[in-house]
Amino acid sequence: MKITCIKLWHKSLPLAKPYWLSGGRLKFEVLDSTFIRVDTDEGLSGWGEGCPWGNTYLPAHGPGIRAGIETMAPAILGMDPRRTNHINQAMDLTLPGHRYAKAPLDIACWDIAGQAAGLPIAELMGGCYPTPTPVASSISTGTPQEMLAEIEDYRERGYRVHSAKVGADTVEDIERVRFLETHRNRGEVIFYDVNRAWTRAEAVTVMNAVVDLPVTFEQPCETLEDCLAVRRLTSHPISIDERLDTLADMTRIVSEGIAELINIKINRVGGLTRAARIRDLALAHGIGISVMPTGGTVLADTDAIHFAQTIPDPYRLRVWSCQDMITVDPAPGRGARVEDGMLSAPGGPGLGVAPDDEWLGKPDVVYSNENSEPV
Ligand code: MG
């Protein structure tokens, strides 16, 4: 089987409401998404989506995905998409780094491999654990009462896991954590996600002020060095999110004991192939794993849940879903859909969802290799 053609669509995804991240540092109202269709000489096509969470969250850039694909497409045209390690090596040789630009191509290749094998991606990647995965809400920083009101909205929709954004003023953060923990329902989980906003001193101050509470903090500070320093002076479990980019980062987290939990964002780490390497190292050391797309439509949610379902209980902590935060839907009623606060991988072969032709319109760019076999 050979890749014969790569089609690319650029789409704007308006958010249902503007989003502020941790302390109001970052605000955006629309996501820049790139959809990829990889065609083969055997008639199978695979889909991938690349959608950064705005341009200011992490070093990922919507136009950068499209520029990266323009550079890498010639290197993988003619290759067998089922050979995902080979595809990733070819992309690395052509364009070192830029993992977020590689993710949609990698995911599209897994979609094709799954269709060729007649298996969902979760089965193809080692086997799908059948229990559904809780979806975490995303609670913007606000007054304690505002944040609780937002949690209550999610509770009514069945959500039992919440990611509450903190990281503004230390006194107010202590109040937020204490208030929300006082109003947390039995069986409910709240991750306090700092998104790198605290200094070391602020992290130690807040975390040690709530040392009596059984809570977890995500990405308290900017760097792994900062998080390690905080780890040594505090006792709460720490989750690393934005500073887990590579297998080398994961090796460091394990060997230096920086965190007890991690959050793998599929697009940030470069797709499913690289995510699986990080997953296996984490599991070998008893580290709990959350899985998320960085943003995007039901396509991104669906590749994330396929991967999440390869993680056994109790190491599989939560996923996040972006589909309800945007105002467009490229595949209404299809793919992984949030039901009662839970998400499950679809059972069909491959990714199990593709965008509607009508919604997509004509591709913005088509890459093909004249030497490839015609479809
Ligand atoms: Mg996070």
Task: Outline the secondary-structure elements.
Elements (H helix, E strand, L loop, with lengths): L2 E19 L4 E15 L4 E6 L11 H15 L7 H11 L4 H19 L3 H4 L8 E7 L4 H13 L4 E5 L4 H13 L6 E5 L6 H10 L6 E3 L5 H10 L4 E3 L6 H10 L4 E5 H4 L2 H13 L3 E5 L5 H11 L7 E5 L21 E2 L13 H4 L4 E4 L7
Parallel strand pairs: 4-5, 4-11, 5-6, 6-7, 7-8, 8-9, 9-10, 10-11
Antiparallel strand pairs: 1-2, 1-13, 2-3, 4-12
Helix pairs in contact: 1-2, 1-3, 2-3, 5-6, 6-7, 7-8, 9-11
Magnesium ion binds next to loops.
Descriptive report:
It is a single chain. Strand 7 (216-218), helix 8 (224-233) and strand 8 form a beta-alpha-beta unit. With 375 residues, the protein is α/β, with parallel strands linked by helices. Helix 1 (62-76) packs across helix 3, helix 5 (144-156) packs parallel to helix 6 and helix 7 (200-209) runs parallel beside helix 8 (224-233). The protein has an eight-stranded parallel barrel, surrounded by five helices. Strands 3-2-1-13 form a four-stranded antiparallel sheet, sandwiched between helices. Helix content is 37%, strand content 22%. Bound molecules: magnesium ion. Magnesium ion binds at residues 193, 195, 218-219, 241, 263.
- What is the H-and-E element order? EEEHHHHEHEHEHEHEHEHHEHEEHE
Number of contiguous helices:
13
Let me know the average pLDDT.
Answer: 95
Q: How many strand elements?
A: 13
Task: Identify every distinct bound molecule in the structure, by name, code or SMILES.
Answer: magnesium ion
Helix amount, in percent?
Answer: 25-40%
Largest sheet: 8 strands, parallel, barrel
Low-confidence stretches: 371-375
Describe the global form: globular
What radius of gyration results from the CA coordinates? 20 Å
**End-to-end distance:** 11 Å
Strand content: 15-25%
Q: Order the strands across the largest sheet as they lie in space.
A: 4-5-6-7-8-9-10-11
Helix- and strand-based class? Answer: alpha/beta
